[in-house]
Write a structure and sequence with these properties.
By secondary structure, this protein is an all-alpha fold. It has helices at about 1-10, 15-35, 45-55, 65-75, 80-85.
Length: about 90
């Protein structure tokens, strides 16, 4: 997917944008999994969709993958020391 490639491209030069692209990638990935499993995801928050995919009867996410989805969803970007010295965010 293009979002994954964009996240990788921005990783060094703009980590905040990279993280944003990774979050978007995670959202799309969960939505595609839901569509593949015929799980209705209309109006569900990302947290709710992850939990729905991880719970019976679907059990589509292992505990590790579920944890990674939640970590990606909640991770906050923090500027590195070098980017703040360059005037980055």
């Amino acid at each position: 997917m293009a979002l994954g490639a964009q996240a990788e491209r921005y990783f060094v030069e703009d980590p905040v944008t990279s993280l944003m692209k990774l979050r978007q990638f995670g959202e799309r990935l969960a939505q595609r999994a839901a569509a593949h499993l015929n799980v209705r995801s209309d109006n569900l928050k990302q947290y709710e969709l992850i939990e729905k995919l991880a719970s019976p009867p679907h059990n589509a996410l292992s505990a590790e993958v579920r944890s990674l989805f939640h970590e990606l969803r909640t991770r906050r970007a923090t500027p590195s020391r070098s980017s703040s010295r360059r005037g980055g965010t």
